[in-house]
Amino acid sequence: MFNAKGLRTGAALATLLVLVASCADHRLSTESAAPANQPATPNPSATTSPIGQLSDEFAGTVINAEWWQSYGVAGSVRQDDRLIVQLLPNSAEPAGLMTSLPHGLSGSSFAAEISQTAGGTNNTETSISVMTADRAEFVIVSSFGGTLSVWYKRRGENHRQLGSSITFHAGNHRFRRIREQAGTIRVEVSADGTTWTQPSGWSVASPFATLGSLYGSIGARTFDTSNGQPTAAVFEGINTTVPAIPSGVSGTLTAATQAHLTWQDRSVNETGFRIERRASDGAFVEIGTAGSNATQYSDQTLAAGTTYEYRVRAFNGQG
């Protein structure tokens, strides 16, 4: 028998597999947690730490309520080793997360890794943004209708597009960042979260009256009610380049003392995967590694009749 579930130990990302050698019967179980209910207007009262210090890999199944508040219909936002924003069919209700507390943007940045954008119609948007509590000032990066565009708004003015839209590319635009530098807001994209590019025209004098009390937000929405079969937006992390957590782990016993493990590689910036194992309640020990883009590993050193737990961990220089 084996069970798989996501976990995080320290800064490590992992998927846990429990396997009993010499047992042919097996079952896979998953866990989920319901997010908070409808959004509230943020309370600008507690902290002005740099927004770039807010780093979340969305590991596990519980959204950190100290960092985030959910908005949208209950159940539309959930965490399962990534943040999943599922829009309702035939609804224009937005959904996502907003930081619970204000942060400073001066000399800092707000970045997100997005492995899947919401879909269903060309009127479906996936976005990251930085804004004031009353939403009267903002900068938003939007995937919409096959394009990627940036919009901003100053208090008392209408919103405006920054530069021109570019054709959206899921790989090249997987990471998106809103960055402040010496009074200028720069919007940048990256394929791996390390090398960033600013598309032509994507910078503007800061539209924010003050940079010390702003909120970050990620989410999705549909601009009309014709979205009959919407697909989810998936956010792998905020302000981090630690590899996305592998998912879909499974295992089979290929012999009495041999196990074959497989998983889904969801990251684009891993150096490789560490395979760790323990028997009963012992300590985890690394038994091998698999290279970048690997999706399987064979362990041929089991003892028959022994229960083993495995951890498959994506890693790079950041964790």
Summarize the entry for a quick read.
The protein has no helices and 23 strands. It is mainly β and 319 residues long.
Overall structural domain count: 2
Helix proportion: under 10%
Overall average residue pLDDT: 85
From the alpha-carbon coordinates, what is the Rg to the nearest angstrom?
21 Å
Could you name the CATH topology of the largest domain?
Jelly Rolls
Record field, number of beta strands: 23
What's the CATH class of the largest domain, please? Answer: Mainly Beta
Taken in chain order, the helices and strands follow as EEEEEEEEEEEEEEEEEEEEEEE
Q: Tell me the fraction of residues in β-strands, as a range.
A: 35-45%
Count of helical stretches:
0
Protein traits:
mainly beta, elongated, Jelly Rolls, 319 residues, seven-stranded antiparallel sheet, Immunoglobulin-like, eight-stranded antiparallel sheet
Layout of secondary structure:
Elements (H helix, E strand, L loop, with lengths): L3 E6 L2 E9 L47 E4 L5 E3 L3 E3 L9 E5 L9 E8 L7 E8 L6 E7 L2 E7 L6 E2 L4 E2 L7 E7 L2 E7 L12 E3 L9 E8 L10 E6 L8 E9 L2 E7 L7 E8 L5 E7 L4 E4 L7 E9 L4
Antiparallel strand pairs: 1-2, 2-23, 3-6, 4-5, 5-17, 6-16, 7-13, 7-17, 8-9, 8-16, 9-10, 10-11, 10-12, 13-14, 14-15, 18-19, 19-22, 20-21, 20-23
Structure description:
There is one protein chain. By secondary structure, this protein is an all-beta fold. It folds into two domains: 4-30 and 244-315, Immunoglobulins (Immunoglobulin-like, Sandwich); 51-238, Jelly Rolls, CATH 2.60.120.200. Helix content is 0%, strand content 44%. It has strands spanning 4-9, 12-20, 68-71, 77-79, 83-85, 95-99, 109-116, 124-131, 138-144, 147-153, 160-161, 166-167, 175-181, 184-190, 203-205, 215-222, 233-238, 247-255, 258-264, 272-279, 285-291, 296-299, 307-315. Strands 3, 6, 8, 9, 10, 11, 12 and 16 form an eight-stranded antiparallel sheet that branches. The radius of gyration is 21 Å and the shape is elongated.
